[in-house]
Amino acid sequence: MFGHDMSWASFNVLEVMSSPKFMQKRVGYLAATQTFTLDTDVLMLTTNLLKKDLGSRYPPEISLAINGVSHIVSPSLARDLSPDLLSKLSHTSPLIRKKAVLVLYKCFLQSPELLRTSWPRLRECLNDEDGSVVSATVNVVCELARRNPKNYLPLAPQLFRLLTETPNNWMTIKLIKLVRTSSQILFATLTPLEPRLIKKLTPPITNLIRTTPAMSLLYECINGLISGGLLAGIQGTDEGEDLASVCVTKLRGFLVIGDSNLKYVGLLALTKLVATHAHLVAEHQDVILDCIDDTDISIRYRALELVVGMVNSDSLPEVVGRLIRQLKPAANRGEEEYVELEGAADESEEEDMEEDVMRGGKRKGQLVLLELPEAYKRTVIKRIIEMCSRDLYVNVGDFEWYLDVLVQLVRYAPPVSSLADGELQDDSEDFDEDEDDTEAEKEKDVGEEIGRELRNVAIRVRSVRAEAVRYAEMLIGRHDGMFPAAGGGGKRVLGAAAWIAGEFSSLLTDSQEALNSLLHSSSPLLPPDILAIYIQAIPKVYAAITGSENTPWTPARKSTVTLLTTRVITFFEPLAISPNLEVQERAVEFLELFRLASEAIASTPASMPDAEEEYDPPLILTQAIPAMFIGQELNPVAPRAQRKVPLPEGLDLDEPINPNLQQLLREAEYTDSTLGTDEEDDGFREWYYQKPIPKASNTPASLGVDSASAKAFGNSSGSGSYQGAMKEEDYLDADILERRKRDRRERNKDDPFYIGASVVGEGEEIDLDSIPVMKLDLGDVPPATSHQKAQTKRRRERVAIAADEGIAGDDGEDFVGEVEAAKKKGRGRKGLLQVDSSGLMGYSLDGDGEGEGKKKEEEAIKAAREQVEKYRKEMELATERVKARNSLEIPKVKVKKVKEGGEKKVKKVKKDKGKEKEGTEKKKKKKDTEVEGGAEGGSKGRADEGKKKKKKKVKKDETGAEAGVEV
Amino acid sequence: MINAVLVFNNNGQPRLTKFYSQIDVSLQQKLLTQIFSLVSNRPASACNFLPLPPLLAGSSSSTSWNTSAGDEPTTLLYRHYATLYFIVISDSLESPLGLLDLIQVFVQALDALFENVCELDLIFNFETLHATLEEMIIGGCVVETDLGKIVKAVRDAGKVAKRPKERSVGGGGGSGMGMGRGGFMSGGDVWTGR
């Protein structure tokens, strides 16, 4: 009973169950309900016992048996016991009746064909005089309707009456749920009944919402309206808008009422609503934002989710600010002094901290300052990125701000789970309710995503590219405070940073320093994939430093270049034997190149300033190496664009390019292969360096630009939208802020509307020169962004955001598909949506497993479902027929005959279905086709004898039913 | 429907485990541990909703709230009374707030049956505990929410044993029905045998 295996005792349990003493019987049943499974072999022995107990004269015994059945019912038990159970539907005690109704549902789950025969009786129970029986029946109908609502449409008037009349809240909730589930599916199938139903349902539900005092009912009504699609259905009409705003107002009440449960469900409902009525939800931003800072982690999660849907370009800075403040380490939080407006929020922050500390202390004893669980932090960071990058940064007005935010996020990156100590690990496991943390995902550092964003911004938004490069520079320089002090989180951002630094090396403020940090002795310790990016970035930066043609080849230059080259070579040398293939390959390639370069440098004499002879710098420096990296501008490319590049005709990838490869290689070993001297450059240069005529299909597709988060065309921009109460000071660190201030001042220097920054704070002047501030190239619209729409609501700079590039003719629906796929990938959610849709119509016949085994089951069920649906329909038809006849001919005996006649046709179907169900349920791996084939063959072979048996059974059923009536 | 009803104490020892679908014992154990670790970490002020434990979270997740009418468990509710946690796992077809009330009714019913219920009552009279639950939930569906009816039904079934000290006095007499049937089953005195 408390989790111990006792399958060995099943026979003894059975013995106790059959004891004549009620008390012992009860214990026996209890044991059976707790331990018997469908596989228990003594189950088949229980049939008679259960029959006997069901037929008992004492209600407690019957209810005992009924409860027993509800737990251990198997398909065969269901078939055998159904007559007895049906007879209990007309038992004198409502106690028994209501339980029988529910048990029948269990039986239907086991053998669906029962539904057909017993449905009329069940339907009668809706008119029962006892409230609980009706309630139970509604419950069952609700469960059944979830599987296939169409069957139960005829009940609509009856249920509607119940909805308007019943005083029982619980039942009303169920009815609303019923409406919800059925309308969900009805909308999908576009049943003609649907519009009428909506019209009919809206008034009473609205009425309920306005009047009911019960919070649970109120919530369910609103929830039903929202997730049933009713609101979406009447959207656009005045009535619909009214109703929606009523709902939102009521939900606001939930949030402010102070009860955390109501808050939770309120947020839940709002999250659902936000998809259709974002503007209405946004009106209540104030309360919702308060929930983000709630002490309860569950509520925070919900609020976070809601906010992601709700945020718009106006509220983004504030929302992000609040979130980042949460990430702030507690120690920092304490010493922060907030500015005036933050008074209220400030307090909650303190509380919050206390709460966390208390909790941490309670559990872990001496643990220093346990803050929010790491998983939560991770989710917050991901959500922030998601919010900002949505719809190709449609909400981001100020990209410099965004860059600052990103850098700040790196600083707050939680430790990577694998590195975290046990306690933290514990936490993150506990709270990772939100998707993302499957094992693989868990290893992932948020730095990866932050890096992706940095790269995206650097590529897409030219105007802040310089800024991005500067940040990348700082990141790879690993300046103090760029990364969290402990835990090693966020390190994966280095990959992207190195890439940016390399790719836009011309924009580097101090390329020498950048190269130094790339070549730092700790670099080889980075993870291999990042190291590979480093290796690629080093020659790029190197080229930027050494490649200038104009500087004279002075001895000083020669010596610096020689020194640099040697350093690069020494850096690459150990990597050439790296165990990681990618690293090894890149290192070996560049190593050779740099050796050549150093030879060339050594052989080119420097031109003395006073000498009359001038020497040019070696061509390999000025031409060859830069030519490898400088060429076309890199543009973002749609994730699947490369796949669409048409295969050139006559290209056979299996064909060796040079059939004599082997021979060539062998020759190569003898010949001295010191190529790469200056004269060979020409063809090489022509090939790589000259711009081909720009064709869309020629865009380099594998640039390492992950445009996963890019979603649609369109851009917007702007700055200075800080009307919100949130001050940047609250969430950005001091140094970043300072930089911002400086930038702003610099930017406004030429602006006559600003008073010149004559007074410069102390300590800032020093840095002012060392960090050149790039001007925003406002009017500069890159060629790639032909799909620009400028939104200029208020004063906004136009920031060009490059959209994905694709092949000509690759857009429209295709693009949307891509984007969606990319979106899914980008968010790192595993198969979320797919599972949902399959679960929607889930016709799972057993009561649904807990977690494991379910997936397997689902597959099998999915395959079987279509067929089942077909049978369902037939069953429904048959039910109708039987009903019709029932109502015509009341005497029982006649019904029997009619039934036999009427059922003959469907009988075979029934048989098939039963078999098939058993097959799929029991042996989940069995393929549907097999089952089908087997069932058909079997049923044909057995058709005749089956019929006979069935006839007998039907007779028995009838006698059973009659007996029941007599009792 | 309701997938499971669990009761365990502050140390995570199960006092009642009722799963309305058949799952492995080992899985049950695992689930219990996971839920307990979730629930025990929560401050008293937090709301009564729990995130799904890893074992359940596999297929469903935050967004499935919106779209699915499926069977997968989506809601994990708990209430904390003195030394006991009452947990209900349900799918989206049940009303979360309604379920919280249901737990309340359950506890009230137990309270009425045992007169000031405590954990010991549930340990020694686990049959009554189960019987009460059976009056409220059958096969995962809520069958009765009326406190009076539930208590009456359990009492009628003649199963309500008094607390140990009173038991010796009351004998089997606490249960009128049991006595009435004494002739048939010579039962009702089963408690004296212990």
What secondary-structure arrangement, pairings included, does this model have?
The complex is a heterodimer of chains A (967) and B (194).
Chain A: H1 10-17, H2 22-35, H3 46-54, H4 59-72, H5 75-88, H6 94-110, H7 113-124, H8 131-147, H9 156-165, H10 169-189, H11 194-211, H12 215-227, H13 230-233, H14 238-256, H15 260-273, H16 278-282, H17 285-292, H18 297-310, H19 316-327, H20 330-335, H21 343-364, H22 374-393, H23 399-412, H24 422-431, H25 439-443, H26 446-460, H27 465-477, H28 493-503, H29 511-518, H30 528-546, H31 555-575, H32 581-603, H33 619-629, H34 641-644, H35 661-670, H36 681-689, H37 734-748, H38 765-770, H39 813-827, H40 832-840, H41 854-888, H42 892-922, H43 928-966
Helix pairs in contact in A: 1-2, 2-4, 3-5, 4-6, 5-6, 5-7, 5-43, 6-7, 6-8, 7-41, 8-10, 10-12, 11-12, 12-15, 14-15, 15-18, 17-18, 18-22, 19-22, 22-23, 22-26, 23-26, 26-27, 26-28, 27-28, 27-29, 28-30, 29-30, 30-31, 30-32, 30-33, 31-32, 32-33, 33-36, 41-42, 42-43
Chain B: E1 2-9, E2 14-19, H1 25-39, E3 49-50, H2 54-57, H3 64-67, E4 75-81, E5 84-90, H4 96-114, H5 119-124, H6 126-136, E6 137-138, E7 141-142, H7 147-156, H8 164-170, H9 176-180, H10 182-185
Antiparallel strand pairs in B: 1-2, 1-5, 3-4, 4-5, 6-7
Helix pairs in contact in B: 4-7, 6-7
Keywords (chain B): Membrane, Protein transport, Transport
Protein name (chain B): AP complex subunit sigma
Organism (chain B): Morchella conica CCBAS932
Give structural notes:
- The complex is a heterodimer of chains A (967) and B (194).
- Chain A is mostly helical and 967 residues long.
- Among the domains of chain A are: 1-147, Leucine-rich Repeat Variant, CATH 1.25.10.10; 855-966, no CATH class.
- Chain A is built from 43 helices and no strands.
- The two termini of chain A are 36 Å apart.
- In chain B, helix 4 (96-114) packs across helix 7.
- The radius of gyration of chain B is 18 Å and the shape is globular.
- The relative contact order of chain B is 0.12.
- A five-stranded antiparallel sheet of chain B has the order 2-1-5-4-3. Chain B has a two-stranded antiparallel ribbon with strand order 6-7.
- The longest helix of chain B is centred in the middle third of the chain and has 19 residues, at 96-114.
- Chain B has two domains: 2-160, Beta-Lactamase (2-Layer Sandwich), CATH 3.30.450; 163-194, no CATH class.
- Chain B is of the alpha+beta class and 194 residues long.
- Classes of the chains: A mainly alpha (967), B alpha+beta (194).
- Chains A and B meet through helix 2, helix 4, helix 6, helix 8 and helix 10 of A and strand 2, helix 1, strand 3, helix 2 and helix 3 of B.
- Chain B: One of its GO terms (biological process) is intracellular protein transport.
- Chain B: InterPro entries: AP_complex_ssu, AP_mu_sigma_su, Clathrin_sm-chain_CS, Longin-like_dom_sf.
- Chain B: One of its GO terms (cellular component) is endomembrane system.
- Chain B: Keywords: Membrane, Protein transport, Transport.
- Chain B: This is AP complex subunit sigma.
- Chain A: Residues 423-440 have a biased composition (Acidic residues).
